[in-house]
Amino acid sequence: MIRFILQRFIQSVLLIYIVATLVFLLVRITPGGPFSQDRNLRPEQIVQLEEQYGLSETGFHQYYKFIYSLSPKQLNPVGLIQWDIEKAFGVDLGYSMRYEGRRVNQLLQDSLPTSFELGLYALLLAMVVGVISGVAASVYPDQWPDRALSIFYTLGICIPALALAPILIGFFGFMLPSSLQLPVMHWDSPSHKVLPVLALSFYYLGSLGRLTRAYMLEVSSAPYLKAARAKGLGTWKIAFKHGLLSTLSPIIAYIGPTAAHLLTGSFVVEAIFNIPGMGMHLVNSALNRDYSLLIGCVLVYTVLIVVLNTIADIIAYYLNPQSRES
Questions:
Q1: Second CATH level (architecture) for the domain 108-325
Q2: DSSP string covering 254-318, please?
């Protein structure tokens, strides 16, 4: 177990640095620069700004400073609670090139909790509804509840959030107002969170429901379930207490990447509903060629994906008896 965790940790660290290097190279080789689109700047002002942000230095020196700035230098759990990556790890992502005088760390600290909250609600909804409905569908195979839920899962998988969000706004916007209709600061209102959470979770709800149903049907003929039925146990008790427990390992293995996608892949929903999360910064930084903010957003997303996938792999490894015995 310890050896497996150590291997996954080393692989995760290497992957993060590889992604960081690729992002650094891509933003540098892209034609143009963060100040080339501003027609109000004179050439000498552009040169001055490039010197201020270190863009006039050699590529190797820029890369060295970049790797050093994102390398952890400390570990402070209080910083994690406050969403302050500099206080938590000593990571300094520098200043934004478009938000004058604003540090990237502060921009991420202000927006990351919103994206995390949106993704967490969507994850909980997808897990609870997807797993419970998947178990229910397996209890009534090829009957009307199973067929109805199968249609529901298919719709969830086929309709992306990009198309579902405007549909939800059109049909339910008069009952459940969204942040699209109000300034972004109204995201704190619970009623404005319903439609974004539904739009973000619908695909994963359908996928998780189908996956749970498939694994439950696969183990339905297992000897221990037949023995439970012979003892006179109720159908639902057998399904949840015995059947679902035996399928937790593959479900958790799927939930890991799902959690990473929900917590980091909400930028489309955030853009549609005008939610002040990291998705807004990611889109704006890409359009404005704000190197510092773009790299910061991508790295935060990368770390979240790697960490959540690693945690899911460790849990699945622990739940697999054959892995623990090896």
A1: Orthogonal Bundle (1.10)
A2: HHHHHHHHHHHS-HHHHHHHT--SHHHHHHHHHHHT-HHHHHHHHHHHHHHHHHHHHHHHHHHHH
Collapsed DSSP state (helix, strand, coil) of residue 103: strand
The encoded tokens of residue 128 equal 């609870």
Structure-block tokens of residue 326: 């090896």
- Domain residue ranges of the chain, discontinuous segments joined by +: 2-104, 108-325
Contact in structure between 265 and 161 (CB atoms under 8 Å): no
* pLDDT tens digits along 36-67: 666 566 777 777 777 777 777 777 888 888 88
Residue 180: exposed, middle, or buried by beta-carbon count in 10 A (0-12, 13-18, 19+)? middle
Contacts of 61-67 spanning 24+ positions with Cβ under 8 A: 62/24, 62/28, 63/21, 63/24, 66/20, 66/24, 66/295, 67/17, 67/20, 67/21
Distance CA 319, CA 243 (A): 15
The answer to whether 168 and 199 have CB atoms below 8 angstroms apart is yes
225, 242 contact by CB (below 8 A): yes
DSSP string, 43-89: HHHHHHHHHHTTTTS-HHHHHHHHHHHHS-----HHHHHTT-HHHHH
Cβ neighbours for 162, distance < 8 A, ≥ 6 positions apart:
268, 272
Going by the DSSP 8-state scheme, the letter that residue 147 receives in this structure is H
pTM for the full model? 0.79
SS3 state of residue 95: strand
- pLDDT, tens only, 92-126: 888 888 787 788 888 888 888 888 888 889 989 99
Cα dihedral sign, 134-138-142-144: negative
How many residues does this entry show for the chain? 326
Which amino acid does the sequence have at 106?
Q
